[in-house]
């Protein structure tokens, strides 16, 4: 059941329009990054945290980590141009472990129950990712005209965490780098190797803090969970 987690935290968060790394914005008076880190700090099965960071933000992040008593961080390598590069720089620094999770630092509402399901499935099958079923009617559109209504039953909205056997993800990342393939998630890299990737039904609460509206939703989720009065 043990695992280590890679948290890419080196984005610029342009869509948030905060003029700073969105992970430093506060939810319930605590940076989003700390909310995410605390989930893994408090999960007894997590044995190590790897954070990809911007070099100019490393000192500040190290200070935050100390201030909030996060003790599981094993390394803070430089992030890259794209999220995939940030993840890869962590994978390259890690020692071999059985299971590695990749989780957006910008998704602070992940639960230990979902993490445990993902780790279990990855131990059995090699690769398992979090997702939720599409709620709305889904249509393919070209030049403003509907081309097709897609069967919703087969459509999932994909989130993180994404859990893998370490050697499988490391190989997928290396191959992608070699051929210059850029995916929008880690599962795409593993799918390219022809390896099946399983889905674990997660939660609509597992939002990625992307725009200002997400901060309002985030406060509501915390309130629902009883963290705010
Ligand atoms: O921009 P977006 O919210 O999709 O990024 C998802 C996560 O990946 C964030 O936690 C962000 O900090 C991280 N990221 C990164 N390196 C990049 C781009 C994004 O670590 N080059």
Automatic annotation (TrEMBL):
SUPFAM superfamilies: Nucleotide-diphospho-sugar transferases (SSF53448)
Reaction equation(s) it catalyzes: 2-C-methyl-D-erythritol 4-phosphate + CTP + H(+) = 4-CDP-2-C-methyl-D-erythritol + diphosphate
InterPro entries: IspD, IspD/TarI, IspD/TarI_cytidylyltransf_bact, ISPD_synthase_CS, Nucleotide-diphossugar_trans
Superkingdom as given in the UniProt entry: Bacteria
UniProt pathway annotation: Isoprenoid biosynthesis; isopentenyl diphosphate biosynthesis via DXP pathway; isopentenyl diphosphate from 1-deoxy-D-xylulose 5-phosphate: step 2/6
Swiss-Prot/TrEMBL site (Transition state stabilizer) positions: 15, 22
EC number, UniProt record: 2.7.7.60
One annotated GO biological process: isopentenyl diphosphate biosynthetic process, methylerythritol 4-phosphate pathway
Enzyme class (EC, first level): transferase
Family: Belongs to the IspD/TarI cytidylyltransferase family. IspD subfamily.
Protein name according to UniProt: 2-C-methyl-D-erythritol 4-phosphate cytidylyltransferase
Annotated organism of origin: Lysinibacillus antri
Species lineage: Bacteria, Bacillati, Bacillota, Bacilli, Bacillales
Gene from which the chain derives: ispD
């Amino acid at each position: 059941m043990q695992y280590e987690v890679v948290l890419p935290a080196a984005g610029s968060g342009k869509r948030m329009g905060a003029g700073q790394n969105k992970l430093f914005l506060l939810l319930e008076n605590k940076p989003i990054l700390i909310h995410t880190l605390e989930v893994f700090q408090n999960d007894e099965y997590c044995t190590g945290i790897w954070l990809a960071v911007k070099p100019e933000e490393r000192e500040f992040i190290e200070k935050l980590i100390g201030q909030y008593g996060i003790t599981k961080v094993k390394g803070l390598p430089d992030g890259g141009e794209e999220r995939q590069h940030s993840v890869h720089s962590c994978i390259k620094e890690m020692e071999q472990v059985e299971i590695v999770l990749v989780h957006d630092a910008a998704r602070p509402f992940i639960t230990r129950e979902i993490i445990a399901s993902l780790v279990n499935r990855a131990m059995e099958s090699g690769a398992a990712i979090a997702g939720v079923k599409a709620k709305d009617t889904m249509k393919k559109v070209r030049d403003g005209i509907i081309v097709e209504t897609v069967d919703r039953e087969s459509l999932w909205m994909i989130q993180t965490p994404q859990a893998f056997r370490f050697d499988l993800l490391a190989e997928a990342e290396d191959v992608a780098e070699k051929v210059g393939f850029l995916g929008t998630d880690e599962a795409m890299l593993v799918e390219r190797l022809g390896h099946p990737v399983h889905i674990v039904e997660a939660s609509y609460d597992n939002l990625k803090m992307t725009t200002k509206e997400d901060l309002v939703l985030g406060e509501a989720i915390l309130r629902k969970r009883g963290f705010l009065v």
